Amino acid sequence: MSRTTAARALLAAFGLLAAVHLGALLAGAGTVEVATKPALMPVLAAYVLARGGPVLLAAALLFGCGGDTLLQVGGDTAFLVGMASFAAGHVCYLVLFVRRGAAPEWGRRWPLAAVAAGYAVAWLGTVALLWPDLTADLRGPVAGYSLLLTAMAYGALRAGPRALLGGLLFLASDTLIASGIAHWPQPPAPQFCIMAGYLAAQWLLADGVLRTTAAPATGAR
Length: 221
Fold this sequence. Notes:
The protein is an all-alpha fold.
């Protein structure tokens, strides 16, 4: 099997797994939901490697798998360790984005200082609103994790518009998780909304990095 064929098969498997998982969330099929969730990010990571993508990108996705699995366990300890696993994934993304150097031409057209200030205000506002409704032992970890997540989302600007959208969706998905922990009113089918946003975010981040990684080679040819 060629590398291209393997990559296509893995991408199709990821799409199928994502559809089954999201369908299980809507149908209340708990066994299928639990069985499919830990498999999602490893399949996407395998796709990245089949495409010749950076090992750090595959690592970011596999840290996401660790977080996905631990969040299924339940309890504060598993939640905190799972959050640490996601945080490690965000560090991998940040390293990838920093290695890309300056923002691409399309990003440099934006007032980047204003964009950074917007992300900072969003982080401060979200933490300030959540703070009174979080338990004391979760306030610090949630604030620190959300700061790292916000930095990752801003850094995704360097990997193109797809990655930037992925970072924003990751922010939205994790904010919805935090609002649930704070016992705020939730939208219909909150777990479906969280996972739909998260899966789209990881795919867009991975695809954005793959596209910018391949761009120099394409230009050279």
